Each structure stands twice: as structure tokens, then as C-alpha cells.
Amino acid sequence: MGLFSNPKQSPRSPSYLFPSVIALCLLSLTVLLLYKVDDVVSRTGTVVGHNLEPTPWHVFPQKTFDDEPPQRRAVKIIQCSYLTCRYAAEDITISDSTFEKQPSSDCPDFFRAIRRDLEPWVSTRISKKHIEEAQNYAAFRVVIVGGKMYVDYYYACVQSRAMFTIWSFLQLLRKFPGLVPDVDLMFDCMDKPTINRTEHQSMPLPLFRYCTTKEHFDIPFPDWSFWGWPEINIRTWQEEFLDIKKGSRAVSWKDKVPLAYWKGNPDVASPVRLELLNCNDSGQWGAQIMRQDWGEAARSGFKLSKLSDQCNHRYKIYAEGYAWSVSLKYILACGSVTLIISPQYEDFFSRGLITQQNYWLVDPLELCPSIKSAVDWGNQHPIEVISYAFS
């Protein structure tokens, strides 16, 4: 065998085999990812998932949000589950007139409630430590910097509350481009306030939620249903309001049923709603009280619970549920006389209502007689009682 002779070569794998194996693996991973996306969405508690764990007393069918391609949904889920969700007010043009000084005017009396909300921090201001401590009670954190919004998500909210609440912040940025200041806040999406004034007196924690009481530091914020509650087929406030007004005006005041009406779910750990069931006697108490079967309503898609079909009575009753109830705005929109059973909780807008001007206050200790008294007086004084109604 010479020095330059070719040795016998051993068999070799084709040169294209290794790249082919790599390509096949990548393709398999891609297919697996797409196959699993829907399962990931259903199990991930994020603002781009559906947050649809039912409340203990509401058995709702699952609501899916499938408007986007699976690939895009997967990217959002991964980003919002393990990174930070980033939202920006897109395609907004800021004109020179945006920053023109507007004529000054005194703030309406309604804003006194907002000043009262923030009063605990007038002298101390809100520090980074306040925010960090409030995180222990929050569902998510909203940070707005330079017109862009960032969200950190801590736990899954009931149904789609988180998604529509965050959507409300986005609408604020779109409606007032360049005018929303930088802010860092904690938000909780459960019903009842948690920052008790006695327990947290030494260090009040700034926590936003949908309602508060005089015994709590929680700061009220408009509830999610203003922007939609798809699980029970409630649309945006603009859409529902127009339909409710149309339904109310279909029947004149004198032709409306001369009774007080309430329809809702009493099985929400609400003593006042349970007591209200005892007033269901049109002859004795002048009231028609309807129990809402949430299970049956959910199975029928809430087709028999349209808000615009519930404005046929002269008087409508508002009764708090587990805490405050989103139903108040729909009751007020009916144009009937609103009978509010003395509330424990207050939401963002209800604090602007004035007793004996915007509504009739009902005594919870004399519930049925108080309702009867309001109905009898109203039917005997039709001209005066109409001033209580939002017509």
C-alpha cells in the first residue's frame, strides 16, 4: 500500500440526513404547540385568557375568546403569564389643540367623594412601600408611563372582570391621549372591600376595587360591566342604556304597572334579598318580587332576562347582593321611581345620588311596610313622584 493510496472508506450517512432530522423536530414542536394552544388558554388565568371560574352561586357556561389566530393567542399567553403585558394607545394623533388651556370651572360637588377617597394620603403621600404592601391584596397592577400601559397579573379574577377593567384603562388612554398622567396602582377584582380602616389605620393601603364602605380605605372604580359582561349577555353601557330607555318609553307612566318590582338572585349570602322575598304580595305590600334562577337563565343564554324588558313598573327596587350590585345603573336607567334599600356599600357613581331627589330610601328594618308606603304615596301623588324618576 503506497503512501498516497486511498484507504478503504467506511460507509457514511447521507449529508442531508442531519438537517432533515432537525427540520422534522422543529415541525413536530410547531404542530404540538398549535395543538396545545387552546388547552393552554383554557387553563391560564390571564387577561387574555378568560378568567371564567364561576362564583359560588352563579353557574355560567364557559365563554371563549377566539377572535385571534391561535399563534397570536399563544404569544400573548406566554408573554402575559411569564413576562409583562404591554399595552399602548395606538394610532393616536395628538394635535396642538389637545394641550390648549380649557376654561377653568369649579369642580362639581360629586368630586368631593374622590377627594374623600384620597384624603388618607394627603399628608403622607403614597410611597413605593404603600404600593408594595397593597400588592398582597391585589389581583393585578396597572402602570401607565408616557401614555403606555403595563399590567402585572397576580391571580385570576372571576369571569372576564379583569379583561374588561383593563380595557377601561385602554379606553381612557385613547379618549384622552397625552392627558393621562403617569400612575402606578394596585387593583382587586373581588366584590367586598378588604382594607379595613381600623386594622390599617397606621398605614392605609391604596387599593382600587369596584366598591367601598365608610369603614374601608378601598378606592372605588367603575365596575367592569360598563364595558361589557358577556357571560350574561350584557353589552356595553352605551348599548344597554339606549335599549333600556327605548323599552321604558314604550309604556307611558300612567300605563305602567303601579307596583314595586325586583328581579334577581337572593341566594348570594344577602339577608336583605332573602327578607325581600317576604314582600312578594301585590295586594298587601304593593310589590312584585321575582326570583332569578341563574342556572336556568344561563342554560337559555339569558334570553328571557333582557334589561330593556324590565321597565314596565312604576317603581323598581334596588337591593344589595353579596356586596354592591351592578344592577343599580340599569334600574336607574328605567325611568321608574327607584326604591333603594338603605345600602351598606357604595360604588363610584352612587355617591352622586341624592336621597328624595334621585331615589326613595327604603328602611331595611321595616322593609315591606316601607315599600308599601312608597308605592301608595307615589300612586296618590303622580305629578310629584315623577320627579324621582330618571325620565
From TrEMBL:
Domain Glycosyl transferase CAP10: 179-391
Keyword Membrane: yes
Keywords associated with the record: Membrane, Transferase, Transmembrane, Transmembrane helix
GO molecular-function terms, A-Z: transferase activity
Transmembrane stretches, start-end: 16-35
InterPro entries per the UniProt record, alphabetical: CAP10, O-Glucosyltr/Glycosyltrsf_90
UniProt key word Transmembrane: yes
Entry-linked Pfam families: Glyco_transf_90
Family from the record: Belongs to the glycosyltransferase 90 family.
Protein name, per record: Glycosyl transferase CAP10 domain-containing protein
